[in-house]
Write a structure and sequence with these properties.
- The chain is α/β, with parallel strands linked by helices.
- The protein is built from 23 helices and 15 strands.
- Strands 12-11-10-13-14-15 form a 6-stranded parallel sheet, with helices on both faces. A 5-stranded parallel sheet has the order 5-4-6-7-8, with helices on both faces. Strands 1-2 form a two-stranded antiparallel ribbon.
- Helix content is about 45%, strand content about 10%.
- The structure holds FE(4)-NI(1)-S(5) CLUSTER with Oxygen.
């Protein structure tokens, strides 16, 4: 029972069986326990909340105080807002602000990483360093820096100056856009959507959505695309590339996933958020012999550091740190009573964690000046002095272990998998040290063993059974010989279901299985966190460069999906994939009304202009079919559709993992 008597037991209106709320047995076990304990979790609040029927289809405008104006999603052209705004203007403005927020989130993260990089170069930060000098040179060369005969720190300084433009450019083209295939970059130039600087694009998009400004949905959509590209080829890409340079580029590593990674006899510390620096700081602190000894004096066998959500996925990729679960499990894991401290930084941190943590006497510790939570303890993390923060966190966690009053119940589920497939490693894995390239991947696509490539990414959303869309979709894709690249919460869903193992090749179609067995790789490759979606952009560019599959990203037999999306960051990611030429489908729903001109522009018109396009469906198998149909369409356009006559096989002969 909750220790805090002021917290009232919740009344769940509909006691939907926990097994219908989540595919994850560990989370279901904890949801049942939370219900018995009278504790409210998002998985239950999600079934009780009735979403606003007007807002869900983006038919309301709150951008001035003459309203809010509500239009009828069933008859969207019947009326206009007080200012005269049509349904298309209203939807485009709403979508624009979603994309601006998502881009701002990733770019703010990227800018913070860039600042840390500068502090290391300037000698202000001593606890972190430049770890991957090969990648430093490679990235520097990619933006036109001559590295010949230069010292590491000299190259780093030049790279800093160049990458700062990602955020601060007023004019010109964002540095990493030159990594896109020539034809893709030309398409952006022709459309007038090459991003300048992230701050400029977000600012302009916000300004243009003000009452009485840009009231042509087509013109607004151009700036939406430009802003989203500033995320994918800017803020997010800077975050990924500099994090690799400072903390190490991932390569395949075995890691355990799910709540069974908690240990009853250890001090358990969970880190959840998005920025790797604080997590790296705690990783260094938990191996400090002083704290290990302290933990032992309180009766613990040791200190167990575990990740969740995106920074968890990043640390798992780099260091094999165990991972306890994705977005919809962050409250549930506290219900175990075994979490001595949950330490968070920014993004996707539910406010509900504070009351759940209070119920189970867990320390919820915020560490970032940009994200405080009412009811949590704030201990600010400073890269220049990580120990001051991490010492306090460890002391609190160890003390809580020594006085645990809550009964502990840890689900047994634990799944081993292989994670850490950076775009550099994929190149090496397919081509070897001396001829690393994407040509073998292209050859296998051209000869039909691999039908195409899909990026399956993004959130979990309590509107649907947790993980179920991710798993059903990916199962369908791989059995149809589509190689799947994953990041974030989606990667964790599939890892829990056992798909990130080489043995999962038995679930793949015969062509993909043959490639996986030859290389020894899983049919589902985990690339890391959500900002690491940029690894997929770089992989796609490398596929174009390797030849045989067209001239631009839009020519490739590839597709993307976020089957259980919920965040504005997901919309920004989707839009940068669409603007880069990728057919991108979202599950659950989409904030626009079918039949309106704005919806038609996103779902058809952009493709006619030479970009990718959006798609949506409520069923994961339907999403998979849409992606496969698009991949087949691209194969036909490339003239490689005949090579797939070899794909007859019977699924009943194949073993199921999940
Ligand atoms: O897509 S950012 S923690 S919920 S995976 Fe997960 Fe990461 Fe959030 Fe949204 Ni992306």
């Amino acid at each position: 029972m909750p220790s805090d008597k002021s917290i009232k037991p919740i009344k769940i209106q509909k006691q939907i069986p926990s097994s219908e709320r989540t595919l994850c047995e560990a989370t279901a076990q904890m949801l049942d326990k939370a219900r018995r304990d009278g504790v409210s979790l998002a998985l239950d609040r999600g079934t009780e909340m009735k979403p606003c029927p007007i807002g869900v289809e983006s038919a309301c405008c709150k951008h001035c105080y003459m309203g809010p104006c509500r239009l009828n999603p069933r008859d969207p052209y019947k009326k206009v807002g007080v200012c005269g705004a049509t349904i298309d203007t209203i939807q485009a403005r709403n979508f624009a602000r979603n994309v601006a927020t998502g881009t701002a989130s990733h770019s703010d993260h990227g800018m913070h990483i860039l600042k840390l990089f500068k502090d290391i170069i300037d000698g202000h930060v001593k606890d972190f360093t430049i770890k991957d000098t090969i990648k430093l040179e490679r990235v520097a060369k990619s933006v036109g820096i001559d590295v010949e005969g230069k010292e590491v720190y000299a190259v780093a300084k030049e790279l800093y100056v160049e990458l700062e433009k990602t955020f601060s450019n007023v004019e010109g083209e964002m540095p990493f856009t030159r990594r896109a295939p020539k034809a893709t970059l030309e398409q952006w130039r022709k459309g007038g959507i090459v991003p300048r600087g992230a701050m400029r694009e977000v600012m302009e998009l916000m300004s243009r959505t003000h009452i009485g400004c840009d009231q042509d949905y087509k013109n607004l959509t151009k700036q939406i695309s430009r802003t989203a590209l500033a995320d994918g080829w800017g803020g997010s890409m800077v975050a990924t590339e500099l994090s690799d340079i400072m903390f190490g580029t991932p390569s395949p590593t075995a890691a355990d996933v799910n709540m069974g990674v908690l240990k009853e006899d250890h001090v358990n510390i969970i880190v959840h958020g998005h920025e790797p620096a604080m997590f790296e700081g705690i990783l260094a602190a938990v191996s400090d012999p002083f704290y290990i000894e302290e933990a032992k004096t309180k009766g613990a066998a040791g200190i167990n550091l575990v990740g969740m959500c995106c920074s968890g996925a990043e640390m798992m990729s780099r260091h094999g740190i165990p991972h306890a679960g994705n977005f919809s499990s962050t409250e549930a894991v506290i219900v175990t009573g075994a979490v001595d401290a949950m330490v968070v930084d920014i993004q996707c941190i539910k406010q509900g964690l504070a009351s759940v943590a209070k119920c189970y006497d867990t320390h919820l510790i915020t560490t970032n000046p940009r994200c405080h939570i009412e009811g949590a303890t704030h201990i600010e993390f400073e890269e220049r002095d990580p120990k001051t923060c991490t010492d306090q966190i460890l002391t609190k966690a160890i003390t809580r272990f020594g006085s645990r009053s809550m009964p502990v119940e840890i689900p047994k589920q634990i799944q081993k998998g292989v994670h850490g497939f950076s775009h550099e490693y994929i190149e090496y894995m397919l081509g070897g040290t001396f001829r690393g390239s994407y040509s073998p991947l292209n050859e296998n696509i051209i000869n039909g063993r691999i039908r195409g490539v899909a990026g399956v990414v993004g959130c979990t959303n309590p509107k649907v059974k947790q993980d179920s869309f991710h798993v059903a979709l990916v199962r369908e894709l791989i059995r149809n010989d589509v190689l799947v690249l994953q990041t974030g919460c989606s990667q964790i869903a599939l890892a829990k279901a056992g798909f990130l193992t080489p043995e999962a090749a038995v679930l793949a179609g015969p062509g993909l299985a043959e490639v996986c067995e030859t290389v020894g790789m899983p049919p589902v490759l985990g690339l890391g966190s959500c900002v690491d979606n940029t690894r997929i952009l770089i992989a796609a560019s490398a596929m174009v460069e390797a030849g045989g599959l067209g001239k631009s990203i839009a020519d490739l037999p590839v597709a993307g999906c976020a089957p259980e999306w919920m965040s504005e960051k997901a919309l920004a990611i989707g839009q940068y994939f669409v603007s880069s030429g990728v057919y991108t489908v979202f599950g659950i729903g989409f904030p626009s009304i079918k039949g309106t001109k704005f919806h038609d522009l996103l779902f058809n018109g952009l493709e006619e202009q030479g970009y990718g396009k959006w798609g949506t469906a409520a069923d994961p198998i339907e999403l998979a079919r849409m992606m496969i149909a698009h991949i087949d369409k691209k194969r036909k356009e490339l003239g490689i559709d005949k090579t797939r006559e070899r794909t007859l096989f019977d699924m009943s002969n194949r073993r199921e993992i999940a």
